[in-house]
Design a protein that fits this description.
The protein is of the alpha/beta class and 768 residues long. A hairpin with a 3-residue loop joins strand 11 and strand 12.
Length: 768
């Protein structure tokens, strides 16, 4: 067997890294030649006559299409099959390649499984043709018969490949075409359901239409996924991700699957789970969600249990996911084909259960793309257990710990910080001045509100270029900057580099703290290497913020440390009557605990969310495929805003949008966009309605008109961007009711919330 000659493969790609990846995949089985040039590829093909050529399309000296044309015109190389390896994914490129008689396509980045499978298929064809030729020689078959036999075989292969390409192209096209009218149906029925004067029959009919549209949209998405997998266009995009966040988002979305069913959900995890892993977080979450939704679908009552375990294996980590239910179970004869495309178990009994039968097939293929697989055990009538095994990358030895594990099991992840927050003693940092930079006004309000608790002057800006200009002028001078990372135009890292490049002593030594929702492992190192001094993740942990301020601000000024009970007296406006917040979609207790149970802080953040989120929704609504990178920033900002008020389900939806946009998956981005826009708009309306009732209950002392000295002070603060002074002035103005010019105070609040300070200065100048 050792004397059997290996088949040979010629790899042509101008990128060294691509050559190295393909060589590592193919060299154990084949003799591998390689070159980085199209012209050299033609020479090597004539010299070595490889059994197969893997050919890149975009190369500097001669593109792949031209190379293939030359090879097909030469008798010596005409019959060598060529597979294009490319990052291009348009239908036009595939059609052009097929017209030139390309055997197949492999898309970048490479999947080991797909590369091996497609190369093996072509090599098998080559070997079959070679065997036929040898047989013809041995049996003295005539040349005419041999040519006809070879032509018939090639025609059969081409027909099979053409059918596969046609099917994938058809499924992809139809999925796109169906999605547009479905989005209209779902969106319009959703708007109609918001009307108050609908009859019960019309409301019930609209609900049926909306539910049917949602089911059909899910089916379309499954079909699109399976067509991408079959065509090799679905590839994994690994990133470092947080295990607690993955589990928290999965649990949050689980509420949608359970609905009104009397089902108890149990989570089995330990504190030994790794805090960070390296893999395609979106697809891991899809596997979990598919298994859980399948369990919920076939379980009318009882329990559904999710178990997650991890085992270290060198530089890899094997993740074991188990989903157990007390549902209908699967017949023994169906267990062997349960993962087949379009298969639904026991269709007669489950005829009311909607779906394509693609969910488990897609789930298994995704698991196999992660070098794993899925198995099932079931007893008909008693329930099923599905187990998935996935290979992920090792990041660090840090574990999630018993506290976080317990919080996740009790569905209260993040709430454990409340007691520690209540004991916080803030230092009085009067005399210090800091700058907060964030393109999201709501996030800006959250950070500035928390920082002002230290009696500092706090300014806010929304763009990197404004920050650079202010630091260049050195007026005013700041003790520290809290800088967001993801911003349009100049992002946080680019802004810090520009500041350090000013080369003044002030610009070189100014402490800059990253303030971002990009809290993946390795992010801190990235920020430290690019000129930041420290790191704060969103939503902001007030204990961590206190540590950062003591380290970078307190050391610069002469201060007196005071007890919080002495410095932060309760706002008397909250003692007049009991404040009870009841807004659907918000975990109010969790939100209050996030800000140390300080009601005034939390209410100001809710007001800011309602005032500024519509602008973000407008940007998301205008996102098209060409502007998807901007959609990443907008979705990222919305995720942070929802987290700041503890709207956890909307935060999870925004996270899915951000992840989809980051990976360039516009179709998946759209599937989350429509429902997210509707739900966030409803939340904004609910918050505004609650504040209307709340403000109506508060009885402020009456004055004839706003105080002129307070208005003049407000104007000066706006001119100097003194946000602390602006807040003090507005608090004074809003503490009274007015017989005249009451609309002026409301207008001032609206403009200041949107940071339109120039308009405030202009109007106050006119008033004087």
């Amino acid at each position: 067997m050792d004397d059997v000659k290996k088949n040979s493969v010629l790899i042509v790609d101008d990128e060294k890294s691509n050559l190295e990846v393909l060589i590592s995949i193919l060299s154990p089985e084949y003799i591998v030649y390689m070159t980085k040039s199209g012209l050299s590829a033609i020479e090597m093909a004539n010299k070595y006559l490889p059994d197969l050529i893997l050919l890149d399309i975009l190369m500097p000296d001669m593109n792949g299409f031209d190379v293939l044309s030359v090879l097909k015109k030469t008798d010596k190389t005409r019959h060598i099959p060529v597979i294009f390896i490319t990052g291009l994914d348009t239908v036009e490129d595939e059609e052009k390649g097929l017209d030139l008689d390309a055997a197949d396509f492999i898309h970048k980045p490479f999947s080991t499984k797909i590369v091996k499978s497609r190369v093996r298929n072509q090599i098998q064809i080559v070997n079959q043709i070679r065997a036929i030729e040898q047989y013809a020689h041995n049996t003295q078959v005539t040349l005419t018969e041999l040519v006809k036999l070879q032509q018939d075989l090639e025609a059969a292969v081409n027909a099979a490949q053409s059918a596969s390409h046609s099917k994938s192209a058809f499924l992809t096209t139809m999925s796109h075409e169906l999605r547009t009218p479905l989005n209209v149906i779902i969106g319009l029925t959703g708007l109609m359901l918001e009307e108050d004067d609908l009859t019960s029959f019309i409301r019930s009919s609209l609900m049926s239409i909306s539910n049917a549209g949602g089911t059909l949209l899910s089916i379309v998405n499954d079909i699109l996924d399976i067509s991408k997998i079959e065509s090799g266009k679905l590839t994994l995009i690994p990133v470092e991700y947080q295990m607690p966040s993955l589990l928290n988002d999965t649990i949050t979305l689980l509420k949608i699957y359970i609905g009104e069913k009397p089902i108890e959900f149990k989570l089995h995890i330990s504190g030994d789970l790794p805090a960070m892993l390296y893999g395609d977080e979106l697809r891991v979450r899809q596997i979990m969600n598919n298994l859980l939704s399948n369990a919920m679908k076939y379980t009318n009552e009882g329990t559904v249990e999710l178990s997650v375990e991890c085992e270290r294996d060198g530089d890899d980590v094997w993740m074991e996911i188990s989903v157990k239910d007390t549902g209908k179970g699967i017949r023994e004869e169906d267990l062997k084909i349960i993962f087949s495309d379009y298969f639904q178990a026991d269709t007669r009994t489950n005829r009311k259960t909607e779906g394509t039968g693609l969910g488990l097939s897609i789930t298994r293929r995704l698991a196999q793309m992660m070098d794993g697989d899925i198995s099932v055990e079931s007893e008909y009538g008693k329930g099923s257990t599905f187990r998935a095994r996935l290979r992920q990358g090792f990041v660090s030895d840090t574990k999630i710990g018993t506290a976080i594990a317990e919080n996740l099991r009790s569905f209260s992840f993040g709430e454990a910080r409340s007691q520690a927050s209540n004991t916080l003693v803030r230092a009085d940092l009067k005399g210090a001045r800091v700058l907060v930079v964030d393109d999201m006004q709501n996030n800006l309000d959250v950070a500035t509100g928390l920082l002002r608790k230290y009696n500092m002057k706090v300014d806010g800006l929304t763009s990197g270029q404004e920050v650079v200009d202010r630091i260049r002028n050195e007026k005013p001078q700041y003790n520290a900057i809290f800088m967001d990372h993801m911003m349009p135009g100049m992002d946080g890292i680019e802004t810090v580099k520009a500041i350090r490049a000013l080369e003044t002593e002030y610009a070189r030594n100014l402490p800059i703290i990253a303030l971002t929702a990009n809290a993946i492992s390795g992010a801190e190192k990235m920020f430290f290497e690019n000129g930041f001094q420290d790191f704060l993740s969103k939503p902001i942990d007030i204990m961590r913020m206190d540590t950062v301020l003591k380290k970078w601000v307190r050391s610069q000024i002469a201060i007196e440390s005071v007890d919080e009970s002495e410095s932060d007296e309760p706002d008397p406006s909250f003692e007049e009557f009991d404040v009870s917040i009841d807004i659907p979609g918000i975990d109010v207790q969790k939100g209050l605990s996030l800000y140390g149970d300080e009601m005034d802080t939390y209410l100001s953040i809710l007001r800011s969310f309602a005032a500024n989120t519509p602008v973000v929704l407008g940007r998301l609504r205008e996102t098209v495929k060409e502007t998807l990178p901007d959609g990443v920033i907008s979705a990222h900002g919305l995720k942070g805003s929802c987290a700041s008020i503890c709207a956890d389900q909307l935060r999870a939806m925004a996270a899915e949008m951000e992840s989809s946009a980051r990976k360039g998956d516009f179709d998946r981005f759209l599937t989350f966009l429509d429902s997210c826009l509707k739900d966030v708009e409803q939340l904004v309306n609910d918050i505004n309605a609650w504040f209307d009732a709340y403000d109506a209950r508060r009885e402020n002392p009456r004055r004839y008109a706003p105080d002129s000295e307070t208005l003049a002070h407000l104007k000066r603060c706006c001119q100097s961007y003194d946000m602390s002074g602006i807040d003090e002035a507005m608090e004074e103005l809003e503490s009274f009711s007015y017989e005249t010019d009451a609309d002026l105070v409301a207008w001032l609040r609206e403009k200041i919330d949107k940071m339109e300070l120039d308009e405030v200065v202009e109007r106050l100048s006119e008033e004087n």
